[in-house]
Every structure is written in structure tokens, then in C-alpha cells.
Specification:
Two copies of one chain form a homodimer.
Chain A (H helix, E strand, L loop, with lengths): L4 E6 L3 H9 L5 E7 L3 E3 L4 H5 L9 E3 H4 L6 E5 L2 E5 L4 E4 L4 E3 L2 E4 L4 E2 L17 H20 L3 H7 L1 E5 L3 H17 L13 E6 L10 H14 L1 E5 L2 E5 L3 E6 L2 E6 L2 E4 L3 E2 L2 H10 L9 E2 L5 E2 L2 E6 L4 E2 L12 H19 L15 E4 L5 E5 L2 E4 H20 L2 H13 L11 H4 L2 H8 L5 H6 L2
Parallel strand pairs in A: 1-2, 1-9, 2-5, 9-21, 11-12, 11-17, 12-13, 19-22
Antiparallel strand pairs in A: 3-4, 6-7, 7-8, 10-18, 14-15, 15-16, 20-21, 23-24, 24-25
Helix pairs in contact in A: 1-9, 4-5
């Protein structure tokens, strides 16, 4: 019996998982390698960050998603290197695996454009860990503000800045505004959470730059109605622990803010850079690997790059956006290309992205949607959004829970997952922060000032 | 206007929260202080540890539980000291608060009986953080076993030891057995999770020592049926990273096991010891504070101790168990005592525990229950268990979700919250562990040996 062809897929995100699933009936041995044991539904990560959902509710164990696919093996591991000549991938634990075809789907990571020091004060939102860190920051800010008597300091703790007004930034800003205006409405005794200032900023001239102009305007109006202050055309120059400097049309502006969240941009993970250098692949300025019309790297027809790491062009020469839809279609395409080759069939037509549209949600029961040229906003757009997201999640986990959770929450404004847990105590030293602002002299106040 | 009487409650567990809620209509200013921002439903913590539930599903933010109770303020803080003479509590952040009445409800922590070094290899299950740590250990063990070729090492990774056969130990053992036999059934390619050995041990002569004999027997039979090996009358002598030594009737026994979970016993938290020393209160050997019939400390009629920290006696002179029911009834009692005193009413009758019975769940649809002398087991007991636990949870959060989650899970054996996240990578170095067992020579095997 001849050996079965081996396909290695690196990354269990939208691209990698779609590829694995599309290989279900192919006569191949598939190994899917990921550093995490779960597939994460990233578009809802902002809901973990804002306490609406628990991480377990938007993630599915990769093993369980693929458990019935007998030709597929899941490997928990960290790919450190790829040798495209001997056709091996090397794991951090020392194991090295040989492939016949390789699909690289390692996604993207947040980019601070040369200001990596900002990461400490302005976490981003790409992983479960980061989302939980952001959740802690938001919740702690209200806790600290509750304990502070000084109005200026209190104001700084109640100022939330979101840098980047793409879908994630817009969704985060809307959710934080709802937390402040509704969820926490009755929860504090010294502060009024409604005083919180939520600022969404972008260097572009409008929010949702990738959306049509009219929808961006509608999104902006919806945000303002929720109490978000939208600042466009401003450049962030410095982010520090307690403040940030932004350049506006009128000059430099200093903003006192203790909570800054980075929804700014993406870059290529280390393995993407390694792969580019090993294959001498062409990349764009951000490090994305330029792939051919069949999604392979030049001179390496057995290496497919899909999802955020790939720079693929649409027929107009415009690069495809880094969204789940693109990654999923590319993953499926790569899987089919491998199957057809093994079956001796002629090559597929070149990859063509079928754009089903864009969506962004803005608070409860409100969204903007651009689907096949139809522009929706408000509740109809929210329904489309909810339907699409739930369909996807339900596929993996019978997670009708998420829907029920939303229903409860949207009716009651409560947020079930408002826990501060884990390493929060070390990430953010609550007692130390307070010790610096709570003077012994305040002590009687705390008790009396009910 | 005369100043309102100030009640400080330290701890937002079952005892503290019940006290706060019972003071809802009292003419007092209540301050509830907890180190966490949530009330935790500890009896279900084992379900977080075994991936059935997310932490957010068994916890409710204290602020939101108490948001509509206008006389009550929640303070996120760490109480370091209590001065019973000047009537102040001191927080780690430097603030000091004055009280007229104090209710101390700080609960218990796990005890390693002088072997604190064991904690590193045998985590316990008292907090969300520990539960998530235990979850990681369990899931990682299967991941590592999947990658190991050596049968002895693989066996050690697939051996799970639970020390302590009280309700938590029994529930954990049952849940791990179900994970191995059902949930992960199809998830691996090299190992068969059903080979996992789950050992539940206790130095007592039977499981559930606090339960009636016949129910303990039934629980044991149910556990054995699930595939749990029950070892009673054995003493743990040493726990190390890769093995433990236990003393049996036949002598010393060495057990190779990479996952040991401590469900062994409880001790008094630091603040409990501080309070005892400041008030010169009598304590038992474990440090519990002996309270009078009105749950106050001798000579300090304004300091109530409720829940696990208190040693209260039933009419037969037997000490009350450290369970939620006792803590809740004591919290309510203390609150009423304070109210009555302010209203100038005569003192309440001495505290009397109303025992509604004991419950322990053993895997899916099976439990043992002892309620008012009626002994139930199997499905009827499980129904009682589910009803009681859900009623409690629903009170706080409309958390009908938990019920739905159980329903899905019990029908499908899936576990949605099987995520390995956060500091797992540092708590447990997967790559390093693997590097020590995955030889480069194994590499081809990993890929081919599907």
C-alpha cells in the first residue's frame, strides 16, 4: 500500500479550520497544529472584553470540532520553523514533521507601528488572554474611580479611549458606552458611571473606513447617540500609563486617560516572517506574503498561505481584507487544490473572493451592514449580524446559549461575565493603585460618605 | 439627624452575601468588602475545573447582586487587619473603615496539613483561578499523553489522583471519569482516553464520610461503574511532581501520576488568625473561631463570625459542617441580630441550624441525597440536586443558561468550556515537558502514526 499524502495545516483559525474540514473526504492524512487547543470566534472577542460572554462561549475545542474526521489529527504545538526544501515543520518541543502539502494559516497579530512600548498601557484584542485583560482594565477603572475623591483623578479613571475605528473599535466603544450608561447604572455609590467619557479615535477622516460612506455616517450617529465621542483625523503620538498625546488639526492635545485600548492595526506573526525568509517570498511592507492566483508561494507549489498572512489581490488589483470570510474561502480553496491534484484532476480556476458583505454592530439591537450592495442599518442590520454570527457558532457547539445570553442581556442590560479573575492582581496592582490615591485622611469619608 | 449605624461585612461568599441581603430594609449603612468583585457559587466550581461551565456562569458580580439595595455599598478591597477596640478594619490599600457592627465571613482555604510544598503538584479547588488551573492540568495531561510513545510515561500522564473523598472529591472524580470515557472518546488518534485511570483516595474507611453509610455505599458503586478506582483507608505520605507515596494497610505504595488534585481539607485564612489574635478568641486546632450561641466572639458582642471561619455547635455538641447552608443561615441570623438590637427588640433565640440535608452528584444524572432523613440516590437525587442548585443560581443572574448548558451536555457529553488559556503556558510548560519526551527520532512517527 502506498503511503497516503500528508497535509500539514498550521493554525486553527478560520482559514486553517476551513481547510481541515474541506479535506474531510480526501485521501490524505491531515495534521492541524495550533498553539491553542481551541478555535476562537474572534469577531465576538470584544464581547468577552466587555463582559457579555465568557471565553468558553466563543471558542470550541479543535479536537472536538474535528473528532469525527478520522483522517485528521490535532496537535497542540508551537511551530517555530519551516524547511521548504526538505518539507518539514519544526515544533518548539523539538519534534519535526514532514509534509507533502502545507497550508499556513497563522493569522495576524496587533501592530503598534514601531511603538511596542504602548502595548503595556494600551492592550489590544487578538486573543482570549488579551480580551480578559481588557475586561479587567475596564472593570477596575470603575472600581478605582469609586474610591477616589479627587475629581481630576476620578475623571482620568473614567476616561476610556479606543484607538482605531474599524469594526472592532466601533464595537468596543459601543459596548463600553452601554456598560457605563446601562449595565453599571445602579452599581456604585460614589460615582455615577454615566459620567464616563468614551472616546473613539482614528487617523482616518471617518469611522469604519472600509465601509461605504453612508453606513459610516449612520454608525457614527449611532455611536454618538450611545454617548461615544468620535474623534477622526487625529494621530496618536504618545501613549503612557496615565495619559496620551494626540495630534489634531489644531495641534497637540493631551488627554488624561487610564484606560486605552488598541484597535489599531495588524502585523505578521514571527512564523510568517520566518516562512517568507525561508522561501524568499515577496512580501508587502507589513510583511504579508504575496501569493499567486492559486494561493501558493512562488516556486513552492506545495505551500499555500491563507487568511491574514496572505496578500491576495482581487480582480481590480485591490488587496483582500483580513476578515474571516476571506480566510475561510481561501482555506477551502487550498484544500480543494490539494484534493484535485491527488485525484489527477486539472487545476482549479484561480481563487476568487466571493464578498458577502461587511458588518459592524453598535450596541444593542443596532448595526450597519453592507451586503451585495444593499446598505442596512439599525435593527434590520443587527438581525442580519446576529443571524450570521449565531449560525457560525451553532455549527460548532450547539451554542444556542450565546443567543439566549444575548436575549437576556439585551432585555435586562445585565452582563453575566463581569468577573475580574486570574492574574489581574499582578497585571494591575489594585491595592498599590489605591494606596497612591486613598490617603489615610480619606478613611472616614469612605465609610461615612455613603 | 443622628448618624446611621454602620455595618461592615467582610467577605461576599454565602455567609456575607446572605447577611447583606438580610440587612436590606434595616436602618443601617452596610459596606460589603471582598477581594473579588463577584460572588462565587463554589459548589459548582468542580464543573469549571472539568470544563462543563465557564467561570462567568457560576459567579455573579457583587455590585449587580446588590445594586438595588441602596443602603449597601460594595468595596473591592483586601482586609488586612481588624482593630476590635477602636472598631476599625484596615485595607491593604491603606484605607481604614470604622464599624458599629462587624460580620466576618471570610470562609476557608485549602489545607495541606503542614505539607505546603504539595500545593505545587496537587492544586486544590477553592477559587476560580485554581479551578482553571486544574482544568488546564487535566486537559494538558491528555495532550501530552497523545504525544508520548513510551507506555509507562503515557500511563503516568493518564493517571489522575483525587485526594479526599468528600463531596468535592467525589464530584471531581466522577466528572473526570466522564471526560475520559465520553467527552474525549473520539478526540485523540494515538491514545484512547478510556485507558485513563482515575483514583479517588481518602484516609477514611469510606467515601463521603459525612453522609449516611448506605448513601456512601451507593455513591461508591456509582463511581466504580463510571470507572473510578476508589481507595479508602490510605494515607498520602508524599506528593511530588511525577508520583506520590501512599500508605495502605499493606505498606507503602508508590503511584506514578502526573495529575493530582487536592480535595483534602480546609484551614483558616490569614485574616481569621489575625482576628482571633486581636480578640483573644478561642479557636479549635484548625484555627476556627469558637463563637457563642449568638455567633459573636466572647467579649465582643459587636463582632459576628459566620460560615466556615466560625466554630458553632449544634444542640448535641457536634460542630456544624462547613457548607453553604450553614453560612447562609448564620449570615441571615447575624443580620437579624443587628437589626433587632437597633430596633430595641429583645435578642433572638440562639442560632439553630436547620439542616436541609446533604447532596453530592456523581456524574451525569446520578447523585446521592440525604434530606430530612430520606435517602435518595441515582436520578431522583440528581433531580433534587439540579433543582436546588439552579434555584440558587437563577436568583442571582437569570442564569437559566446553566440549566440549558447541562441539558445539552448531558445529552451530547460535550463540554463547551474545554479551553486552555491564560497563564497555563507558564504554570505548565508544555513545550518543555514535551521536549523531554519527544525525541527527534520520534518525529517521523508523529506524522505517520496516524
Amino acid at each position: 500500500m502506498s503511503r497516503r499524502s500528508r497535509v500539514i495545516i498550521v493554525g486553527g483559525g478560520f482559514g486553517g479550520l476551513s481547510a481541515a474540514q474541506a479535506l474531510k473526504s480526501a485521501p490524505v492524512d491531515v495534521t492541524l497544529i495550533d498553539r491553542h487547543n481551541y478555535h476562537l470566534f474572534q469577531p465576538l472577542l470584544y464581547q468577552v472584553a466587555t463582559g457579555s460572554l465568557s471565553a468558553g462561549e466563543i471558542a470550541a475545542p479543535l479536537r472536538s470540532v474535528l473528532s469525527r474526521q478520522k483522517n485528521t489529527r490535532v496537535l497542540l504545538g508551537d511551530v517555530r520553523d519551516i524547511d521548504p526544501i526538505s518539507k518539514h515543520v519544526l515544533l518548539a518541543d523539538g519534534a519535526s514533521l514532514e509534509y507533502d502539502s502545507l497550508i499556513v494559516a497563522v493569522g495576524s497579530q496587533s501592530a503598534y507601528y514601531g511603538h511596542d512600548a504602548w502595548r503595556e498601557w494600551a492592550p489590544s484584542l487578538k486573543s482570549v488572554e488579551e480580551a480578559i485583560n481588557v475586561r479587567h482594565k475596564i472593570l477596575y477603572a470603575f472600581e478605582v474611580a469609586e474610591r477616589i475623591a479627587d475629581p481630576a483623578q476620578r475623571r482620568a479613571w473614567l476616561t476610556f479611549v479606543i484607538v482605531g475605528a474599524g469594526p472592532t473599535g466601533v464595537e468596543l466603544a459601543g459596548a463600553i458606552a452601554e456598560i457605563a450608561r446601562q449595565t453599571l447604572k445602579n452599581d456604585f455609590r460614589s460615582i455615577d458611571p454615566k459620567e464616563a467619557q468614551i472616546i473613539l479615535m482614528d487617523s482616518a477622516q471617518r469611522v469604519l473606513p472600509a465601509f461605504p460612506e453612508d453606513l459610516a455616517q449612520k454608525a457614527k450617529r449611532a455611536l454618538v447617540k450611545l454617548g461615544v465621542e468620535v474623534q477622526t483625523g487625529v494621530m496618536v503620538k504618545v501613549i503612557d500609563k496615565e495619559w496620551l498625546n494626540v495630534q489634531t488639526h489644531d495641534g497637540m492635545n493631551r488627554l488624561e486617560a487610564r484606560t486605552v485600548i488598541w484597535a489599531g492595526g495588524v502585523s505578521v506573526p514571527a512564523l510568517g516572517k520566518t516562512l517568507a525568509s525561508r522561501t524568499k517570498a515577496e512580501t508587502d511592507r507589513s510583511g504579508k506574503i504575496i501569493v499567486g492566483p492559486q494561493l501558493t508561494i512562488a516556486n513552492y507549489p506545495d505551500i499555500y498561505v491563507v487568511g491574514d498572512l496572505a496578500l491576495a489581490l482581487d480582480p481590480n488589483g485591490k488587496s483582500l481584507p483580513g476578515v474571516a470570510q476571506v480566510a475561510m474561502q481561501q482555506g477551502t480553496y487550498a484544500a480543494k487544490a490539494i484534493s484535485r491534484q491527488l485525484e489527477g484532476k486539472p487545476k482549479q480556476k484561480d481563487f476568487k473572493y466571493f464578498d458577502k458583505g461587511s458588518l459592524a454592530v453598535i450596541g444593542r439591537w443596532s448595526a450597519v451592514a453592507d451586503a451585495f450592495g444593499i446598505h442596512l442599518s439599525g435593527f434590520p442590520a443587527w438581525l442580519v449580524w446576529a443571524f450570521i454570527h449565531l449560525t457560525y457558532i451553532v455549527q460548532f457547539q450547539s451554542r444556542i446559549l450565546v443567543f439566549i445570553q444575548w436575549a437576556i442581556q439585551d432585555l435586562t442590560f445585565s452582563r453575566g461575565a463581569r468577573l475580574i479573575t486570574g492574574t489581574a492582581a499582578t497585571d494591575f496592582n489594585f491595592n498599590e493603585e489605591l494606596a497612591s490615591v486613598v490617603k489615610p485622611a480619606d478613611s472616614s469619608k469612605v465609610a461615612v460618605n455613603m
